[in-house]
Automatic annotation (TrEMBL):
Main location: membrane
Taxonomic superkingdom: Bacteria
Molecular function via GO: glycosyltransferase activity
Example of a GO cellular component annotation carried by this entry: membrane
Segments traversing the membrane: 20-39, 45-67, 338-364, 384-405, 412-434
High-level lineage: Bacteria, Bacteria division TA06
E.C. number: 2.4.1.-
Topology within the bilayer: Multi-pass membrane protein
Species in which this protein is naturally found: candidate division TA06 bacterium ADurb.Bin417
Localization per record: Membrane
Keyword annotations: Glycosyltransferase, Membrane, Transferase, Transmembrane, Transmembrane helix
Protein name: Beta-monoglucosyldiacylglycerol synthase
Length: 467
């Protein structure tokens, strides 16, 4: 297996991409002035086609995840047969920045893992200038397998840079990343070891556990967020697993073979969705990700401003990933193959495009309806508006259906009613996408920090099934 060198997101566009963008904008401006109706119709047709194709591809993946379950399921009796003395050293990376509110919960969630303590290599990744975090840790008596790793005070100040420092010092055969507020299933590490030992495919070097939220009942936003995650991790990613296409990783609970992760060069420290980028890069290098049927419980953002900051970072990182991997498009297609390339374009690039187009389509359709309301014979005589409206209705129907299926799969039936007003949540996602697009231009490496510890209690964890 060759070593795959990383091309990072230090610069949003390389010189060739800048030249191509300049030529495209000049040509588009010329055509807009010369054949404006034709240009607008062509642009709208292509945008609507991509919008609908991305939506229907997402539906296909969710359908496959629903009816062709491919996650790695580990029977409980198989775990009982594992000899604790034969378990390998497992490294846990915990990147922490201003997370004093959830520190006690974090220590408790790691302590409750059903894994020999002497075989855990727990790295607390702390920024050098994070004085409150260092003081909070100094005031606690940490378990002996916890190690404090100070991240140098240098640019960029991002989670992936901290994880790369932890990777350099990792002692485990396997390595996993958890966020500060995470509560993984207690047997998740054992399931990962069993899966790696029993998989017949040596290309698998990453297992993605499922993520869900323990505070789903807190407010409407957390209910929407939980429905989205249930669809994404319980259906969408398993559908990708079934098709064996590139999987954009989640930001936590990725279980790696440590030596292969080092071979790949770790994470891109300049990409604010480093998880997504790494998932694509490992696939390009000839490796695979599988979905592990185990859940890590997180805290859903319950404050709109905090949620928008997080969402803008995710979407910005997806666009960074799309641009970085398109610096050599011919090589990209050759390494992925056409089908996998289309999947990558629709799942990573498509996410960004659809979120940007969605509010524009709502505005266009709304203005047209307001203008001709009460005159049904004049509604949508123009193919332009008819196309926009059909794309909008189809896309929103699919979005509702996918979130509904995610709730049913996770058996969160109390969330079903909120899925019928999910288009309003989709508009919030679009707002975050436009915010991320603006940041990509003016502050591409800005890391919008998510605040944790906003949940009043963890009673939701018991309701969700957390042990």
């Amino acid at each position: 297996m060759k070593t795959f060198l990383m091309d990072d997101a230090r610069n949003t566009l390389d010189p060739r991409q800048k030249a191509a963008l300049f030529i495209f904008l000049v040509a588009a401006g010329f055509l807009l002035g010369w054949r404006r109706p034709l240009f607008l119709w062509t642009f709208n047709f292509l945008a609507s086609f991509f919008y609908l194709t991305s939506s229907f591809y997402k539906f296909l993946l969710v359908f496959l995840g629903l009816y062709r379950r491919s996650e790695i399921f580990v029977p409980a009796d198989e775990l009982d047969r594992i000899d604790p003395k034969e378990l390998p050293v497992y490294t846990i990376l915990l990147p922490l920045y201003r997370e004093t509110e959830v520190l006690d919960q974090l220590i408790s969630s790691i302590a409750r893992l059903d894994y020999p303590a002497e075989r855990l290599d727990v790295k607390l990744l702390i920024e050098a200038n994070d004085t409150p975090m260092r003081a909070a840790l100094a005031a606690r008596s940490l378990p002996g397998n916890f190690e404090l790793v100070i991240i140098p005070d240098s640019r960029p100040k991002t989670k992936p840079k901290a994880c790369n420092v932890g990777l350099e010092q990792a002692r485990g055969e396997f390595l996993v990343i958890y966020d500060a507020e995470d509560i993984p299933d207690s047997d998740q590490l054992k399931k990962s070891v069993w899966a790696y030992r029993n998989l017949q495919d040596p290309r698998v070097i990453c297992l993605q556990a499922k993520l869900n939220y323990y505070n789903s009942r807190q407010n409407l936003l957390t209910r929407w967020f939980t429905a989205e995650y249930s669809m994404w991790f319980d259906l969408y990613l398993p559908g990708m697993d079934f098709l064996q296409v590139p999987i954009p990783l989640g930001g936590t609970s990725n279980h790696f073979r440590t030596d292969k992760l080092r071979e790949l060069g770790g994470w891109d420290p300049y990409n604010v969705a480093e998880d997504c980028e790494l998932g694509i890069r490992l696939f390009r290098a000839g490796y695979r990700t599988r979905v592990l049927d185990s859940t890590t419980w997180e805290e859903a953002n319950s404050h709109l401003g905090n949620w928008l900051a997080q969402r803008s970072r995710w979407v910005k990182g997806y666009l960074q990933t799309f641009l970085v991997h398109h610096r050599r498009p011919v090589q990209l297609v050759r390494e992925l193959g056409w089908f996998n390339y289309l999947s990558f374009s629709l799942s990573v690039g498509g996410l960004f495009v659809v979120l940007l187009l969605n509010p524009l389509y709502w505005v266009t359709t709304s203005l047209w309806l307001l203008r001709y309301w009460g005159r049904p014979e004049l509604l949508f005589p123009n193919p332009y508006y008819e196309l926009v409206t059909r794309a909008l209705l189809a896309g929103n129907f699919i979005f509702i259906l996918l979130n509904l299926l995610g709730c049913v799969r996770r058996r969160l039936y109390y969330l079903v009613p909120v899925t019928f007003i999910a288009p309003f949540y989709w508009l919030l996602m679009s707002l975050g996408a436009w915010q991320g697009f603006r940041q990509l231009i003016f502050s591409p490496h800005y890391w919008a920090k998510s605040r944790h510890g906003l949940t009043v209690t963890l009673l939701e964890a018991g309701e969700a099934g957390v042990e």
